[in-house]
Amino acid sequence: MVQRIEPQPGQESVWDYPRPPRVEQSPRRIRVVFNGVTIADSQQTWRVLETSHPPVYYIPLEDVQQNYLALTPRSTFCEWKGVAQYFDLTVGDRQVSNAVWRYPEPTERFAAIRDCVALYPSQMEACYVDDERVQAQPGDFYGGWITRDIVGPFKGGMGTWGW
Length: 163
Prior knowledge:
Layout: E1 12-13, E2 22-25, E3 30-34, E4 37-42, E5 46-50, E6 53-60, E7 69-78, E8 82-91, E9 94-102, E10 116-119, E11 126-129, E12 132-133, E13 135-136, E14 145-146, E15 150-151
Parallel strand pairs: 1-15
Antiparallel strand pairs: 2-5, 3-4, 3-11, 5-6, 6-10, 7-8, 8-9, 9-10, 11-12, 13-14
């Protein structure tokens, strides 16, 4: 049995997030740095909240330096959001494959993220929520962003697939 961490004032527990997940607008500033370049900076983001997962932030394409993205053949299917397409990210001499994704035709419930991208924080130089540097969700499957106001335990690491 998973032992939930009780949130303190000002914190959220991922165990209070819903399943199926929901999408909500975020007023917080989201910044992403890769190879010394700020590739995204936005205060118009959305976050997807799902039981046992830290939030995944979706950044409007207009706030992303799209010239660093290259579409790849990879696609995946999410039962809630639909079919995702992936992008390689290349800045200068550094590249990460399939590190960025989007849902070009999301389900109606997730229509808000249609023109947005998400990314794996573990593959970036740094990701920030406001001025706090994010810790990546373990496992690189879900792409969650952990900050001091989010408590778990979090699904994604070794031994958590059965949760």
